[in-house]
Structures are given as C-alpha cells and as structure tokens.
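Data availability (excerpt). The following record was deposited with the supplementary files.
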Amino acid sequence: MLSVILAGCNGLKNEEGKPEESYDGIPSTAKLMAEDSHYAVFTNVEAYGEQIADDWLALEQVSLWAYDKQEQKAEKMMLSHLNTRGDRYDATESFSMPADSIPTIQSVHIISFPNEPLTVLVEECSDYRNVNSFIVEQGKAEAICLPTSQGFVGFSAEEHLLIMQSYDYYRCGGRYDRIEAFDRTGKRICSMDAKLERYDKLPSLEDDDLLEKNQSPF
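Predicted structure:
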C-alpha cells in the first residue's frame, strides 16, 4: 500500500508513476496511483477546469480505474466532477454522497486487504486549502466523505484504522491539530485535539481587553 503524510495542500502529493507493465483496458495515459498484490489503481486526466490564479494549477477532471491482476480485468470506477461545490464538505460526521460528484482526485490509497473488495481512499484539494477525503468502493455509486480537512496520515498498527488529521482554531487565534481514527466504513472511532496549553488558556479574540490592546499571541 502506498501512503503519504499530508500537511494541507502543500503536502498533497501523488504517489504516481508509469506502470512497469501494460494493463489491458487501462488508458495508455493513465498514472499508477496505488498498488497491492491484487489490484493496481490508476487515474487518467479527462479534462481541465479553469485556472483561477497564475500560481495555481488548473484542477483536473479525472477518471479512476482499477485493474484486477488475478482476473486480468480493468474497470472504470468513477469520473470526477469539477463543478461540485466544496462547502458541503464542512461536516462534523461522515456522510454518503454520489462518487461521481467528487471534484478531482490527487491522491489514492488502497485501504482494503487484497482478498477483499477493492476499497480506496481518494483525496483532493479543490479549494487550494483543505484536503477532502473520500472512501470509494469498487462497484458502488456512493462514496463516503470523511469530516476531516488535512488528509490521511497512515494506518493504525493493530486494527488497520484510518488515521486522519484536521485543524481547528484556538479561541485566541491560530490553529491546532486534531487527530482522528476512522474505520473503513467512515465511523469515527476516537478523536484527539493536540492543543498547546499555553495557547488554549489565553483569552478569546472576542475579549474586549485583548482587542483593545491588540495583544494577539500570534
């Protein structure tokens, strides 16, 4: 399984490359994104969205492909949709959504075991700030959107849980990390706020005295 530690959009990297062998039925322009002993997973760029700033790359509309090495069979799992509104991903719990409404795919991780139906975690950063993460199972039209904002860290050693990271804000300003574990159905197992005590005890930015003195700790 391929995995990366993500730190916002700047850390969102494709673990991709050209396959060492050809896979019948997979587009010749497709990029290998993840692989295990049973499956190889690819993305293929189908179209580009509008470039909204000179230093930001245009978003890619991509198709997601799976190749079953044992059956020697290729299958198109989904096609992303560039015009999806991202504000609905600001959720507190996991929720189901059409897989073809995922805006784009920039990272892929296989999260199922080789003898199980293929399930992947796909991630994107279409607002150039937050990493949105989705669980996609082969053959299903619905995906699960996780309520996280900074992406996949890795798997837990014993239960193979998805360790995800997000951010939230101190009352006094500035961000702190939230680390959470989810199972492969999107159920939150546990959550930890990694707050620094010296900041957590400071007054809120709404405190009149702090505002008047302009003494924000950041």
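Summary of structural features: Helices lie at 197-200, 208-213.
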